[in-house]
């Protein structure tokens, strides 16, 4: 058992390690501006090379936030995935930021959403920034 004086060590992760970690996970959080300010919502996702793909409802706040005045314009979002063990004070967190857009008609995100209902808006995030940190035992 860890002692209260044992502090975890924080280390920065490189892009390759970040992508390796999130490749084994199916739920992440999307950070976006819903018109009323910052919002965060969990989604099921898949990693397609170095891009993140997910689906959402057509009527949802996330899909509506991707509407722009410009056809085929990217909307900047953040995407976060983590695994934290509160008992051992260890874990990791990965953040991807970049442009998101709806996938072309007929292209679908290869994701099986946990909630019931239609997820007809398929979205691709192409990250321009991938950062991560890991907390490990000393």
UniProtKB/TrEMBL annotation:
Gene3D superfamilies: Electron Transport, Fmn-binding Protein, Chain A. Residues 103-138 are annotated as: Disordered. Pfam families: Pyridox_ox_2. It comes from the Bacteria. Residues 103-123 have a biased composition (Basic and acidic residues). InterPro entries: Pyridox_Oxase-rel, Split_barrel_FMN-bd. This is Nitroimidazol reductase NimA-like FMN-containing flavoprotein (Pyridoxamine 5'-phosphate oxidase superfamily). The lineage of its organism: Bacteria, Bacillati, Actinomycetota, Actinomycetes, Streptosporangiales.
């Amino acid at each position: 058992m860890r002692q209260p004086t044992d502090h975890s060590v924080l280390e920065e992760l490189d892009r390759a390690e970040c992508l390796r970690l999130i490749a084994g996970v199916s739920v992440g959080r999307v950070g976006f501006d819903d018109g009323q300010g910052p919002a965060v919502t969990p989604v099921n996702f898949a990693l397609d090379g170095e891009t993140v793909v997910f689906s959402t409802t057509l009527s949802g706040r996330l899909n509506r936030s991707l509407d722009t005045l410009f056809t085929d314009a990217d909307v900047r979002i953040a995407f976060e995935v983590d695994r934290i063990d509160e008992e051992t004070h260890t874990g990791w967190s990965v953040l991807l930021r970049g442009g998101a857009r709806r996938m072309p008609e007929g292209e679908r995100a290869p994701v099986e959403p946990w909630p019931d209902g239609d997820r007809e808006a398929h979205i691709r995030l192409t990250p321009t920034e991938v950062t991560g940190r890991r907390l490990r035992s000393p």
